[in-house]
Prior knowledge:
Blueprint: H1 3-15, H2 19-40, E1 43-48, H3 58-65, H4 68-71, E2 74-79, H5 87-92, E3 98-101, H6 103-111, E4 116-121, E5 128-133, E6 148-152, H7 157-166, E7 172-176, H8 181-184, E8 190-194, H9 198-204, E9 212-216, E10 228-232, H10 233-238, H11 240-259, H12 261-274, H13 281-295, H14 309-321
Parallel strand pairs: 1-2, 1-3, 6-7, 6-8
Antiparallel strand pairs: 3-10, 4-10, 5-8, 5-9
Amino acid sequence: MIPAVSRMIERWGHCGRGWLLLMALFSAAQTLAGTESAALAPTPLRLMLAWQPQAQFAGYYVALERGFYREAGIETSILDMDDALSPLEALRAGEADLSILWLSTAIQARAEGLPLVNVGQVFQRSSVVLIARAGSGVHRLSDLNGRRVGIWRGDPSLPVEALLRAQALEVKRVPQSVTVNLFLRGGVEAMSGMLYNEYHRLIDAGLEPEDLTVFRLSEYGIDFPEDGLYVLEQTRHEKSAVIDAFIAATRRGWERAFADPEGTIELVLKYQRAKRIPANRVHQRWMLEQVRAIMGSPGEAGWDWQLRRADIERVGKELRRLGMINAISDDIEGLRVQ
């Protein structure tokens, strides 16, 4: 109970008078206490990752474990992507408040009428690669013609499909799972991958860098910015202050993650083990180092996580030119926080 009100109730109780006032004061005290408690209660917020637990998302785990989100007044739940629900579907279905999406996915969804808004562009460039065995005779992109190429299912396939269309490559598309086993066993002659993930998994499996031919999509004009934080317009309107606080706490999380890499890797491994995902310290260390290179060094005010108008226009025009969207949304600028 609020101390001042408590003293007044005690005084009135001793003098035996003013019971009506006493009850009114008690009721007021309860209301004020409830209001105070509600003001202190953190706001729940659900973040949907773009994949399973790994160092790609280290900053979010650190912000959660170090209490940065709670200090910002947010009760953050981190959801992992599974086979049943993609980050985009989670937003559409109201199962997440924020999702990590690639810009190509966001532009396509916006073109289809989903009112997405980018509130933080964490990765400003692409790390997607196509990987082939050097001994298979694949030395140039054109050598992929007629070959079996592993391609992810769903939204992550967009940049790879854009490359194949842009280069007029006719390949045999083979659905690619979350492992590199299909490539290792010769089921495909090339595979999709991330420089910070699948490429290193192949090295970890015993291949040498010289055994592999790596085509970086960014070197062929398909440099689509990747991990961005997206919400629906309604969420941005209703929870703008909470979203801003979340972004600030996430910056702190990434700063701490890079300042203590070994502690960060141990934290990531904990999340992986909890989900029964194979945990490899060497691989997660590689991934964290690569993610740090992607994000670059923060300026005096931290990282500039603004989604650039030029990137929206460039990626949107490319997707339209390649027939991957029917038209660029009239309100495409709505992707950016104004």
